[in-house]
Design goal:
heterodimer, A: 4 helices, 0% strand, globular, B: 5-stranded parallel β-sheet
Chain lengths: 81, 305
């Protein structure tokens, strides 16, 4: 099952203790410091659980994880594979 | 050992970073109560009463030493009580208030001796707070102060991970306060989370239990910044209102840290009436390795690799 946007935002809200409900799909999360390294590691662990895919070195990039839109696109691609 | 009004003095207790300074400011804002910033009187008295115990069971300290010299324990405690409470009474008198109160954050680590000295002679107001939030706040305190007070240093010496050490400090101090609440009829229990969520209702209950009238202006005075300054949680002096922003900050910790702290703190959390912190599945060694691996890859990403 594809990762739902709301589930991702709920996860980030819980981890950052901020209300990211109104965040845009292209808002930069990690590169701006909105999401810190600890939360990113938790997010990557969580994404592995959600998609059932093990993340490799080639996956960990700003292109894949720096915004809600990119994370959802990455999760959708990995869920299909 | 009562105050001028005939009511017993008040001792505020709780683990450090549990809202005891906030409560101190509120008590001090009441027209009948004087509660100065931290004086360390009771922890100093507790150190005075400290004893060691030999294998034979012999206690070696001031109480037994004076017993050999012909001074009964009750007399020693009475004299010490007069000395310690005298400062609190005199401070209240200088503040032109009839009743004294005392609060020093680290008293909770000296409870056996403080109980020995105070029980039956004061009312205790005991504040409890979620242990994971206390641990997070203690880490901040240590970061800001750049060192450990002796009560916390003892834990850091035994446990190399600061969060674990400080969580264990919470477990011991909160458990000692919970024992007091369970065993002493003169103890009033207050939860930090309730205090910040419903300040007026919580404080009305406290003042009622202390046999003091509710003063509708007490909160405004407490937060108005007109009270004395001194030792205590500096953050409360910058607060103009009570809010619940500090509740649940532990949720921002990495999940691995949450799991470790939950494992340690859950029995005590449940004893105090908090829900246990639970997670789906175990964070086994393989997951810990994965977390480490992802952290390294993330670092490489940060450097543009």
């Amino acid at each position: 099952m594809a990762l739902q946007r709301q589930a991702l935002v709920d996860f980030l809200n819980g981890k950052t203790r901020a209300d990211l409900s109104a965040i845009g799909d292209e808002t930069a999360l990690f590169s701006t410091g909105m999401v810190d390294s600890f939360t990113m590691v938790d997010l990557l662990m969580w994404l592995q659980q959600q998609t059932g895919a093990r993340l490799g070195p080639e996956d960990i990039s700003v292109e894949n994880f720096d915004s809600v839109g990119r994370i959802l696109a990455f999760a959708a691609a990995r869920s299909k594979s | 050992m009562t105050s001028q009004a005939g009511k017993p003095g008040i001792v505020v207790l709780g683990s450090p970073r549990s809202g005891t300074t906030l409560l101190r400011r509120v008590l001090d804002a009441h027209p009948n109560i004087a509660c100065p910033p931290e004086t360390y009187l009771l922890s100093a008295a507790a150190r005075f009463l400290h004893h060691d115990r030999f294998a034979s069971g012999l206690r070696v300290g001031v109480i037994d030493g004076l017993e050999f010299a012909g001074f009964a324990e009750a007399e020693l405690l009475e004299r010490l009580r007069g000395f310690v409470f005298g400062f609190a009474r005199d401070h209240a008198s200088r503040s032109q208030k009839p009743r004294w109160a005392h609060k020093t954050a680290f008293d909770a680590f000296h409870l056996p001796a403080i109980r020995q000295l105070c029980e039956g002679h004061v009312r205790f107001v005991c504040v409890q707070r979620h242990g994971l939030d206390v641990a997070v706040s203690l880490v901040e305190l240590v970061d800001k102060t750049g060192g450990y007070v002796s009560e916390l240093h003892a834990y850091v010496q035994r446990y190399p991970e600061p969060l674990e050490a400080l969580a264990r400090a919470w477990i011991d101090s909160a458990s000692a306060v919970a024992d007091l609440i369970d065993e002493c009829p003169d103890a009033i229990s207050l939860r930090y989370e309730e205090l910040v969520a419903e300040p007026e209702a919580s404080l009305r209950r406290v003042f009622e239990a202390l046999d003091e009238p509710w003063d509708p202006a007490v909160l405004a005075r407490a937060l108005g910044g007109s009270g004395e300054v001194g030792f205590g949680d500096w953050k409360t002096y910058g607060r103009a209102k009570i809010d619940a922003a500090s509740v649940g900050r532990w949720r921002a910790l990495p999940e691995s840290s949450q799991r470790r702290l939950a494992e340690l703190c859950n029995p005590t959390l449940e004893r105090l009436g908090y829900p246990a912190v639970v997670f789906d599945g175990d964070d086994d060694p393989e997951q810990a390795r994965q977390r480490y691996r992802l952290g390294l890859l993330l670092n490489r990403m940060k450097q543009g690799g």
